[in-house]
Amino acid sequence: MNQSENASDEPEQDEDSTRDLDPEPSGELTLQTLAMPRDTNANGDIFGGWLVSQMDLAAGIAMKRVARGRSVTVAINNVNFLYPVNVGSTVSCYADVGEIGRTSAHIDIEVWIFNGGADEKLRKVADGQFVFVAIDDAGRTRPIPK
Length: 146
Hints:
Layout: H1 3-6, H2 15-19, E1 28-34, H3 48-67, E2 71-81, E3 90-100, E4 104-114, E5 123-134
Antiparallel strand pairs: 1-3, 2-5, 3-4, 4-5
C-alpha cells in the first residue's frame, strides 16, 4: 500500500473547528441583548458573570411559562464558556426545557452571538443548565401545574 491509499480524504479538525459545526441554536430564542462596554472585564472582553446573568434571565423566562408563576434559581450546572464575547455583539440566549419534576425543572441554555459581518454566521459561545423551583407568594415550594 502506498501513502495515498492510507491518507484520509477528510481534513483533520481541531477542537475549535468542531465546536463551530453546531448547525444552529437548540431551543427557543428567549432573550436577546447587546453586549455593551460597561459589561467588560479587565481584558476588554465581556465579563463571564454578565453572560451568566443573561443566561439566568433567559432560563427564568422559560421557567415562568412552565411554572405559570414565581420560581427561583436553585442551581446552575456545567456552565461552559467556549469563546470570548466582544463589545457590540448581539447576544442571543436559547432555552430548552428539559426534565420537569413535581416542583422543579431543568432549563438548558445556549448563548450564541452575531457581530454583524457580511458573511458572518452565528457562533455558540456558552451553554449551561439552570435548575428552578416553583414557589408560591410566601416563597414556599409549590407544585408545577400539569
